[in-house]
Amino acid sequence: MAYSHTTEGHAGQTPQSAKNAGPREWVGLSLLSLPTILLGLDLTLLHLALPALAIDLQPTSSQALWIVDVYGFMIAGFLITMGTLGDRIGRRKLLMIGAFAFGVASVIAAYSTSATMLIAARAVLGVAGATLMPSTLALISNMFVNPRQRAVAIGVWATMFALGMAAGPIVGGILLDHYWWGAAFLVAVPVVGLLLATAPFLLSEYRALQTGRLDILSVALSLLALLPIIYGIKKLSNSGLSAGNVLGFAAGFAFLLLFVRRQRRLKSPLFDLNLFANRAFSIALVVLLVGLIGVGGNMLLVTQYLQLVMDLTPLVAGMWMGPPALAMLAAGIAAPLASRRIRPGFVIAGALGLSVIGYLILASLGSEPSGIVQVSSAFSLVYLGLGAIAALGTDLVVGTAPAEKAGSASAISETVQELGLAIGIATLGSLTTAVYRSRIFDQIPDTMASDVHNAVRDSLAGASSVSQKLPSGLLEEAKTAFTAGFNVAAATSAISIAILSILAAVTLRHIVVAEDEEAVESN
User: How far is CA 179 from CA 57, 95, 115, 183, in A?
Assistant: First the structure.
């Protein structure tokens, strides 16, 4: 393994004993980065295409929500299943099958003639997308058996999603200026074609030996557990806590308990719960979860701030998100290199410390024009921390798992990150909304029409949509109220990430990068 611990040694390849990756593996890494970039692009491209496709397909408000959400539901629900399936049938095979399905579903989505057809295509895209992330990460663990090279490779891989998200508004703006909304989905086709044509030559196949049959009941239980929980979290951010949400959470956690109970009884479980016995594995997942909660909520708020407070177009706002994406790329590569000389726990803690500074800057934002530079600079610091935990946290998860469980370990890592993003959007978004409504309530004139009143009280987006009907100064008051809510959310994130930084330094202080054939003892 890549890491050793004072109380538990891990047998495996070390930098000196493991074979160094050659040009074929590094070219293969660039190929495996393409699906990751594609998933990031797909996330932001859709938001740009929504207004145009809404005019064409005329979805109801409920259908519009499902067009956006069903993709994430399917990815989160099927990640664990697909990670284990890749271990059993072959990781390259699953990657190619998933990529082919993703390409076909993208074409169907592009040429959808109704909202229902697009929702179905997006659902298939989500299932196909669930095959891509764990397959690519597990294949990297096979290709780069030298732990130091693997850490750098995972760092590169981990930052590609952010680069895809950053490029989304730019690519989408260019496409939508020249073509119809369906062109946003067709971006996937050449990427899939290149992957299918070159994967057999650049990627070696890996399949775990002596694995049992896939337990269908475990697959069903995992879906019945994860989907209600993810749905409840997303609904919480839109409509607050309700009886339906509570029932959804209760059902999800009940099925989760049944899933755990069944995994403990099976000889060949869908997910091996013994992986959690490794402290580095478990702590790395906590770091990823809490870190992504902060990033997920603030990423949404930053994009809203740039567009609704600073009045930037999606294209220009996307360009201001470029520096944070580059910061994440730099941290994703630098953190594994730094961990060769400094213990990974301290590298993670230091990077999270930079994120805390970024959140504190966001907590002091105002609504003046200089806020554009301030928010981009601050979020760059936040993304430095994200790049470090994405690279080292993911490498800890994969590196401490047995080779035959790499797909499962990759899947749980991705599932935790999906949960973190969803929880962050729900909790920090709700906190911002609560502050906004408390600040704007007394500013709304009693004589205002009820529909306009409700729009302004609901959110800054609502106030912007009826800006022509607002009295002088009220929109500025709404912007100030939103910024105050953003400040509170950022301050809350700063406190949470500061605690996480201390946790990482203390709990991971014994983990070191292996230097020789034997487990390294550290004090």
Answer: 16, 30, 20, 6
For 365-395, b where at least 16 C-beta lie within 10 A, e where not — what string?
bebeeebbebbbebbbbbbbbbbbbbbbbbb
pTM attached to this predicted model? 0.79
Q: What is the pLDDT of residue 7?
A: 34
pLDDT reported for residue 8:
36
What is the CB neighbour count within 10 angstroms for residue 286? Answer: 15
- Cα 294 from Cα 163, distance rounded (Å): 18
Tokens of 436: 């906004």
Cα–Cα distance measured from residue 325 to residue 163, given in angstroms and rounded to the nearest whole number: 6
pLDDT the model gives residue 513: 61
C-beta of residue 429 within 8 angstroms of C-beta of residue 238:
no
The number of C-alpha atoms within 13 Å of 432 and in the hemisphere containing its C-beta is 31
pLDDT averaged over the chain? 81
SS (H, E, C) 278-328: CHHHHHHHHHHHHHHHHHHHHHHHHHHHHHHHCCCCHHHHHHHCHHHHHHH
Fill in the amino acid letter for 171: V
Question: Which two tokens mark 174?
Answer: 């260019």
Q: C-alpha distances in angstroms, 274 versus 38, 89, 260, 278?
A: 33, 22, 11, 8
Q: How far apart are CA 510 and CA 521, in angstroms?
A: 8
Q: Which two tokens stand for residue 147?
A: 């732990």
**39-67 burial: b if 16+ Cβ within 10 Å, else e:** bbbbbbbbebbbeebeeebebeeebbebb
**Alpha-carbon span 276 to 397, nearest angstrom:** 10
Q: How far is residue 510 from each of residues 5, 387, 408, measured CA to CA in Å?
A: 6, 22, 25
